[in-house]
Each structure stands twice: as structure tokens, then as C-alpha cells.
Amino acid sequence: MGVISSPNAPAAIGPYVQGVDLGNMVITSGQLPINPTTSEMPQDVAEQTTQSLENALAVIEQAGLTVHSIVKTTVFVKDLNDFARVNAAYEQFFDSRDAGYPARSCVEVARLPKDAKVEIEMIAVR
Prior knowledge:
The chain has 126 residues and is an alpha+beta fold. It contains two helices and six strands, in the order E-E-E-H-E-H-E-E. Helix 1 (45-62) crosses helix 2 (83-95).
């Protein structure tokens, strides 16, 4: 198992890694919507969704894969009332890259680290 570390995604804030490379599969840890350059988190849920997706994709790309390699995402949202806005940002992210949509789960959670509104993890295959 190889550890993946990308400078284009925020550093882990605990005892975990950004992702793991299992050879035929890459799994990211949940990615918060923190801009890795500024360490800032947008307040808008749609912007948070896009930033979390960008961060997770950066880990996937660090392993040498592309958005087209993503087969599964899990989206954690603080408030499921935001689902329509999260879904629209998610759709735009994949559409803007001419990528098909991966399988997805979306669940509401009580709270996320740093009081984020969204956290996203991905699985990609070679």
C-alpha cells in the first residue's frame, strides 16, 4: 500500500493520510473544502462542494489517475436541506470535465471537522 500526499490538497489534520494507493485502486480520505494555497474555507455550500471535489481530485491525480478514473464518491453534508445546491455544484464539476458521473452516496451528518458544510471522499480505479 502506498501513501498519497498531494501539495494541491490540504494536509491531513489528524492521524491519517490524504489517500492510499492499492495498485489497482486509489482511495482518498474525506476532503474538507479548505483551499490548500490559502488555508481558507468558503462559506457558501456550493463553493465548499466544489473545493472538496477539487481537493479529492488532487489526491487522485497525485496517484497518476484522472477524473475519468473515479468510480465512487461519498458526500457528507451538514444539512440535507442544502442537497439541491450541493448536487448542482457536483454536477457542474463532472460536466465541466466531460466526465461521467461515478456512483455516489450522500448522507447528512451531525457535524464535520472545522464546522465544514461538506466533506467528500473518492474511490478511483486503474
